[in-house]
Amino acid sequence: MPVDRDDSIITPAEMSAIDRDAALSGIDSFRLMTSAGTAVSAAALRLYPQALRFVVLCGPGNNGGDGYIAAAALHASGAQVAVHALGDPAHLKGDAARACAGWGHAGEPLAKYRPRPGDIVIDALFGAGLSRAVPDEVAAVMRAVGSEQLPVIAVDLPSGVDGRTGQVLGESFHASHTVTFMARKPGHLLLPGRTLCGSLEVFDIGIPQRILAAHTSGLSENGPHLWAGQAHALDPSAHKFKRGHLAVFSGGPLATGAARLSAAAGLKAGAGLVTLASASAALDANAAHLTAVMLKEIGDAGALARWLADKRIGAFVLGPGFGDLETARQYALLLNDRALVLDADGITAFKDDPSLLFEAYAQGETHLVMTPHDGEFARLFPDIDADPTLSKVDRAIAAAKRSHAVIVYKGADTVIASPDGRAAINTNAPPWLATAGSGDTLAGIIGAHLAQGMPAFEAAAAGVWRHGRAGAKAGEGLTAEDLAAAIEPLPA
């Protein structure tokens, strides 16, 4: 499988395997370390040419080795450099020991570092492989550097951030810039790690693509590369049904707005026809607000079963503002052979027995997309949610495999996961998307993609991405009503 380092994300475990195979293939591992350390020094000089002093904090492993290489390169450039080491440098092994010997100057213990104005800190303590809380002496230095608001350049990942989960392990640096190697790690994109990296630079240290490809699991940043070829240009002879018919189920008479938001978004996202399915009690409320969206009375499971004879309806959205959990269960089970976006109350309807839903959608190609936020995710997957060893990506993939559905695990770092193990982390959502009705709009966009025939994973990934773009275009202070108008064409 081709690997594009601009999009691919590699876990720390995968990166360790890549480093190992690179060495086994005959590539000089110390040359790779030299490339990494030199890249760090170049970034430091480029970003802070007027620095009074570069302070390099070196850890007890290969991340520390990168730091020693950087220190030597900075010193050779004429900069003032101080090195502080965690642990006894005499205990270093392999390439890290060689790098320390190449530095060739006396250093000080980490605990003796006292931040002073004009320092630029280079964090080469732990990198992406840390899996336990940082030691107390490291935490004390992190707090001291933070209190002085000194710029920090992180080597690979700010120390204290778990490269697999993005979570902070006790304490961490807040970097102004991070230099990582070959590809990004999950901790660079998942929160809170994303906010702690500052600007991010990915440097190619010379490991061949074939070795990266052998250890890449299919995790990537969400973007148009994931649905390339699925966003078909419109046929000039296409009619509205050929562009896709989306059906959205409305809630009761006092809760119709959420479904209308979904329907409007589906229409703007490209569905040729959108119908709002409404119980009789809500028909008047919906009719008073609808123009381009059609209205259909669907009051019970029998009426839905009869409507399903129309095979031109390409996809359904169930859950936004729906309210009636028993009816939501009946509808979702009736739709088990159709493309469905299950959101909000549609998800909550199965909290007491999720297996009913999972078994109903277990056959054939994946055609169910679920869009839970944290609380809804915990209702359907309580054991997965409670496992502290799992990252957000791990949880989303485990849920997708169990449910036979594409999972859109919502949040500022939304993860889209497929039962086949593919996953993507979305990064383009502005913080002001966290507003009432935003998720209803997202469900409508995904529904439009399904109605147009896109596969479930691609439909969901494209929907999340377009939703983020619309939020950025609408700008801070948006309401959910603004989002549909801001939906841009889907890039092919």
Automatic annotation (TrEMBL):
Catalytic activity: (6R)-NADHX = (6S)-NADHX; (6S)-NADHX + ADP = AMP + phosphate + NADH + H(+); (6R)-NADPHX = (6S)-NADPHX; (6S)-NADPHX + ADP = AMP + phosphate + NADPH + H(+)
EC number: 4.2.1.136, 5.1.99.6
Keyword Ribosomal protein annotated: no
Cofactor comment: Binds 1 potassium ion per subunit.
Matching CDD domains: YXKO-related
InterPro entries according to UniProt: Carbohydrate_kinase_pred_CS, CARKD, Nnr, Ribokinase-like, YjeF_N_dom, YjeF_N_dom_sf
Domain YjeF N-terminal: 15-213
Binding site for AMP: 410-414, 439
GO biological process: metabolite repair; nicotinamide nucleotide metabolic process
Superkingdom of the source species: Bacteria
Cofactor(s) for this UniProt protein: K(+); Mg(2+)
GO molecular function: ADP-dependent NAD(P)H-hydrate dehydratase activity; ATP binding; metal ion binding; NAD(P)HX epimerase activity
UniProt family annotation: Belongs to the NnrD/CARKD family.
HAMAP family: NADHX_dehydratase, NADHX_epimerase
Subunit structure and binding partners: Homotetramer.
Known function: Bifunctional enzyme that catalyzes the epimerization of the S- and R-forms of NAD(P)HX and the dehydration of the S-form of NAD(P)HX at the expense of ADP, which is converted to AMP. This allows the repair of both epimers of NAD(P)HX, a damaged form of NAD(P)H that is a result of enzymatic or heat-dependent hydration.
Name of protein: Bifunctional NAD(P)H-hydrate repair enzyme
The organism of origin for this protein: Pararhizobium polonicum
